[in-house]
Every structure is written in C-alpha cells, then in structure tokens.
Amino acid sequence: MKNVGEAPHEELATGEHSTRNRVARSILDHGPSTVADLAGRLGLTQAAVRRHLDSLVTENVIEPREQRVYGARTRGRPAKVFALTDCGRDAFDQAYDALAVDALRWIERTAGGGAAGEAAVAAFARNRLETQAEAYREAIEAAPPEQRTEALAKALSADGYAATARNAPVGEQLCQHHCPVAHVAEQYPQLCEAETETFSRLLGTHVQRLATIAHGDGVCTTFIPKTTTPSASASTAGRNPA
C-alpha cells in the first residue's frame, strides 16, 4: 500500500486509495477496531468500511482478529476486530529497525554476551528512556493527580505512540496503539521492560504491563491501579501475564 503514512485529507475520501489510507491510519491511532468503530470515526457507512477492510486484508496491511477482553467476558460471540499486520506497521515509520537491531547486537557482543550482554542492553534502554522521560515528567507534574495518566498519554502521543488513557476496574489503562520500536523490541524485550519501569517511576506507583505490540498484541496496554503506593519496579514488563 502506498503512502499509508500520509495525513488524511480534510475532504472525505478523494479516491479509493485515500480512504483505505484513512482506515489504516485510524487503526494505527486507535488500535484494533471493529467495523462499527471505524465507520463512526471516519463518517463512512459500514458497507464502505468493509469494502476497504477487504482490500487492506488482501494487501496484508491489516488482519482480522477475535477481540480481546480483559476482565469478565460477556455473553455472545466476541466481536471481530481488525489490527495492523507487521507489513502494515512497516508502511508507517519503522525504516530504521535493522540499524537499531545491529546497534544493540554490537552493544551485546561488546559487553561479552550472555548475562553481561543482556545487562548492557538493559542499561542502554534505561538510559534512552531517561532522556524521553524528562518531558513526560514535566507533563505529569503539571497535571492534577486524577489526570496524570492522561497527561502521560498525551506526552507519549507527541512522541508517536498514539497513546490513550481510559478507566478500568480498580484503575486505569494506558494504551499505546503504535510503537515505533516494536520490531526491535521483539528481539530485545529490555526496551519494553525499561519503558514499563519508567512509567512506574513517573506515576509513583506499581504498574503492570498486560500486553505489548512486540509480543504480538494489537496494543501495548499498561494497567495503573487507583492506589498510588510508590514502587521502584514494574511487574511483568514487556510480557503478557502467564
């Protein structure tokens, strides 16, 4: 698919390709979506959305999935959602994955490999997040306590993570619908672990990573409990709970 990363036009669809791009971009920004979700966001009929989804599936830009449900499952068949494939994500902004992986492999080898190499990559990941975290910290400290997760989501979105915050039972969920380093994190989960630790430190509470794009999920999801007991560590960073 060409030019999938272009910003949508102000006018409604100026061609089939343009509308398909808008559909793909909406899935990137909001995560795995149903036909009804997409129709509502884009102002299209569900029939039109289905037509474009069929084309995107054929192009291997998106794929249908069973909707994941966190918490108690309701009766009835789970809704079908459409999520970006690796190919679809590549069409946006992951052109430097190979370079990043080569750099991390060099760090790993230079440190001696094995546990020492893994520790060196983890140290790099934490150091990288420290620079980003300063802007996130400023946004969080400027927000009222009840809006801190939302402030973090907005700061992450400014860095290309298409993040949102939403209420969840006994807490909140921070959802990152895009990850610029997802392919690299598949091989080096230390990137996800460092990010989760940073969220915990910034928000001043234990957080739990429920899902990651790098682990094959449609969205990176972090649970933030309502209680704010300070914790210097994060749980199940970069992995789904077993």
Work out the helicity level: 40-55%
The portion of residues forming beta strands comes to 5-15%
- Rg, please? 19 Å
Query: What is the strand arrangement across the widest sheet?
Result: 3-4-6-5
Average per-residue pLDDT, rounded, comes to: 82
Element-by-element helix/strand order = HHHEEHHHHEEHHEE
What composes the largest sheet? Answer: 4 strands, antiparallel
Outline: globular
| Class computed from helices, strands and strand pairing | alpha+beta
Number of helices: 9
Instruction: State the separation between the terminal residues, measured CA to CA.
Output: 36 Å
Low-confidence stretches: 1-14, 228-242
From the structure provided, what is the oligomeric state, counting identical versus distinct chains? Answer: single chain
Number of DSSP E strands: 6
